Amino acid sequence: MTAYIIVGAIATWVLGWLWYQYLFPKVREEFGVPPSTRTFVITAVALLVLSAAVGTFIKNRSVVDMADTLRLGFKIWVGFLLPVLVTFWASTRQSLNILVATAGYWLVAALLLAILADWMLL
Asked: Which residues does the chain have with pLDDT short of 50?
């Protein structure tokens, strides 16, 4: 499980870097302030926690195939990640572009973590 947590956190961090650096550079600019060391440390810890949580969900569920894994990843995004993103977006009055790009990133990240968990833990 430890290897999965580390690999999952690194994979989602790299995904985020690629997502905002190359797919949505204008959204990255809309954030305004460039990321600091503090941001990277907090992000790393958060991704480790998320990897552990997704791994635990996958391992403790009766997942039988990749379709089940992807459904669970989607449910994690809809049930846990998206509500927090929408609430934060509504309270900060950021552009809709930021919400869409960020929600898309977290959807892909949740699916990536679920796939990695299926591959490494089951």
From this structure: none
Tokens for 106, please give them.
Answer: 């977290």
What is residue 12's predicted lDDT score, i.e. its pLDDT? 98
Whether 113 contacts 73, CB under 8 Å? yes
Tell me the three state secondary structure of residue 92.
helix
Residue 89 has which token pair?
A: 């977006």
**Boundaries of domain holding 96:** 2-121
Residues 95 and 57: beta-carbon distance below 8 Å: no
Number of domains making up the chain: 1
Residues 6+ positions from 27 with CB-CB distance below 8 Å = 20, 97, 98, 101, 102
Residue 92 tokens read as 């900060």
